[in-house]
Amino acid sequence: MTFRHDYKHLALVASEGARAQRAAQELADAENWVPIEEADAVVVLGGDGFMLHTLHQMLDSGRMLPAFGMNRGTVGFLMNRFDTSSDLRTRINMCRSFSVSPLLMDATTQDGRSHTFRAINEVSLLRETRQTAKIEVTVNGKVRIEELFCDGILLATPAGSTAYNLSANGPILPLDSKMLALTPISPFRPRRWRGAILPDFSQIELHVLEPAKRPVAVVADQKELRDIAHVHLRIDPETTLTLLFDPGHSLDERIVTEQFIA
After folding, report:
1. Which of 26, 37, 97, 188 qualifies as a cystine partner to 149, CB 3.0-4.6 A?
2. Burial class of residue 124, CB neighbours in 10 A (0-12, 13-18, 19+)
3. Which pTM does this prediction carry?
4. Domains and CATH numbers, the chain
5. Active site residues
6. Would you give the DSSP letter of residue 176?
7. What mean pLDDT do residues 152-157 have?
8. Per-residue pLDDT tens for 86-102?
């Protein structure tokens, strides 16, 4: 299948890493780059962390441009290969686009303050001390686990299912699955619970029990809050981010491939 776009104004952003900075110099004359405020698509040089940073900047600004990443970092799961041998604009206009809706997190800390963050990959609750966390898990208004003893628990999107979720033995989710992965981190009790796959319209609530003895922090992608009392999680269907991938190198193919790596 052929995909065609018509992006006329491209912006270029690069991480501070040496490889990304060298790549930015190589591409300096490849396009008539414009400031990101004037662009209709952005080229991102770096790794997955910098791509997430760039996407979050767009979320915060409310101006969400399609993002074409080229890997000048480490893993580069969200990135395309770095290649200067072909016309970059033609390459980008032939890309396949993939839409991502982030998680919306409403968190309340022990002092009663409320905070709202979005997460593209996952939201993780993590114990703050040597004491095991104790968490009540509610899904769609029904308590599913009264007391989960664990190092933590996370909720991952399909795009984030191969990140922290996978390292915690969570499932890999195909991008079109419309599912979320709820995965415990080093669970102690109930011993046989290894997580759940939930429809992406689910409402998940995580209530911290015995917080004075067992304090818990929450991390939404790259933002952290400590001393959490309660977290409410759901997909934000009103917000959409767009990632661009070369034909044959799209994120859904990478997710399928990842499941066959020993």
Report:
1. 188
2. buried
3. 0.85
4. 10-100+240-258 (3.40.50.10330), 103-235 (2.60.200.30)
5. 48
6. T
7. 97
8. 889 999 999 988 888 99
